[in-house]
Design brief:
Layout: H1 4-8, E1 25-29, H2 58-70, E2 75-79, H3 89-97, E3 104-109, H4 114-124, E4 128-132, H5 138-145, H6 150-163, E5 168-174, H7 183-192, E6 196-201, H8 220-228, E7 234-235, E8 246-249, E9 256-260, E10 273-276, E11 281-283, E12 292-293, H9 301-313, H10 321-325, H11 339-342
Parallel strand pairs: 1-2, 1-10, 2-3, 3-4, 4-5, 5-6, 6-9
Antiparallel strand pairs: 7-8, 8-9, 10-11, 11-12
EC number: 4.1.99.22
Subunit structure: Monomer and homodimer.
Pathway: Cofactor biosynthesis; molybdopterin biosynthesis
């Protein structure tokens, strides 16, 4: 077998792991900071955010992406925390969109600031957005987000339609006892609008206790609600993007429904993503603790290439979240970082 350093130094080779999965997608967290405090993302007492100087600079992010693009990365997603709390995000988008090989830049946001930034982001090169919205009811939304204003999110959603982001995806984390009674409303939204509603299972990311199980609800519940409403879901083609959802449409719908069930039916065999955390760590898998810091290698493209392949070399076949649900022994050490610290 060819030595790792030689393999990494060959630009003709794609970022393929030992399970044959080609990685052409990089998720970049711009900050661990967020203007909301969602129950599944942060503990009730909040987070101690990292100092600003620990965030990768725009120059550092651009340098890493240039190397990743040479290795076959074509799609980027900017995440957080909340990426729009990072000043001048549109400047970074413009720089990344100019890199040879980068074909698509998406944004995951809570949309609180999207209404005021949508035009500049579209002009800079953002093509599509994922908006987090777990409830359309203000009192409930405020409880889930610990203080958020749902009207600002809905205004951001309208701005996304206005400037022409496409596709627009709405991420709904399904939580037992919180929002399962709104599934019908989200299903109806997919009928009326050209939008992809993505229901996501609650994940045990960064939890050091079993409290998340109390909120966990398998996504079969969504299909049960379709049946209860007399709506027969029809399988459909995947919505453009990198998401691992199972897609279907309701009769006569303008939009689609996506189910992302990492716990009950994981999608690891198709994983094509790596993550770059705000403090400069390449994470080969969301759930496991393994990380590789890029900072000392920036400026040495060969070393950065080697680092990407080192990360892929230890990437496991599966994240094993289902084993956490059933309290089974894990093969690796789970991360202790919260979602806001990793990048959603």
């Amino acid at each position: 077998m060819e030595p790792l350093s030689m393999a990494a130094g060959s630009n003709s080779r794609l970022l393929m792991d030992k399970f044959g999965r080609v990685h052409d997608y990089l998720r970049i967290s711009l900050t661990d900071r967020c203007n909301l405090r969602c129950v599944y993302c942060m503990p009730a007492e909040g987070m101690k955010f990292m100092e600003n100087e620990k965030h990768l600079t725009f120059d550092e992010i651009e340098a890493v992406v240039r190397v990743a693009a040479k290795l076959g990365v074509r799609r980027l997603r900017l995440t957080g925390g909340e990426p729009l709390v990072r000043p001048n995000v549109e400047e970074l988008v413009e720089r990344l969109s100019a890199i040879a090989g980068i074909e698509d830049i998406a944004l995951t946001t809570n949309a609180i600031f999207l209404a005021q930034k949508a035009d500049a982001l579209k002009k800079a090169g953002i093509t599509r957005v994922n908006i987090s919205l777990d409830s359309m009811k203000q009192e409930r939304f405020g409880k889930i987000t610990r203080g958020g204003d749902v009207k600002k999110v809905l205004a951001g959603l309208e701005a996304a339609f206005r400037v022409g982001f496409h596709p627009i995806k709405l991420n709904v984390v399904l939580m037992k006892g919180f929002n399962e009674d709104e599934v019908d409303d989200f299903l109806r939204m997919s009928i009326d609008r050209d939008i992809n509603i993505r229901f996501i299972e609650y994940m045990p990311i960064g939890h050091d206790d079993d409290g998340w199980r109390d909120l966990y609800l398998p996504l079969e519940y969504v299909k049960e609600r379709c049946e209860a409403l007399g709506l027969a879901p029809e399988s459909t083609e995947a919505v453009y993007g990198n998401g691992p959802a199972e897609y279907f449409k309701l009769p006569g719908a303008k939009g689609t429904i996506g189910l992302i069930h990492p716990v009950s039916d994981h999608f690891c065999e198709k994983c094509n993503r790596l993550r770059l955390t705000a403090d400069g760590n390449i994470k080969p898998c969301l759930f496991w603790q393994d990380e590789f810091n890029v900072r000392k290698y920036i400026g040495d493209d060969q070393a950065l290439e080697d680092l990407f392949f080192r990360a892929l070399d230890i990437k496991p076949e599966s994240h094993e979240m289902a084993k956490v649900l059933f309290q089974e022994e894990l093969s690796h050490e789970p991360t202790v970082r919260r979602m806001s610290q990793i990048g959603g």
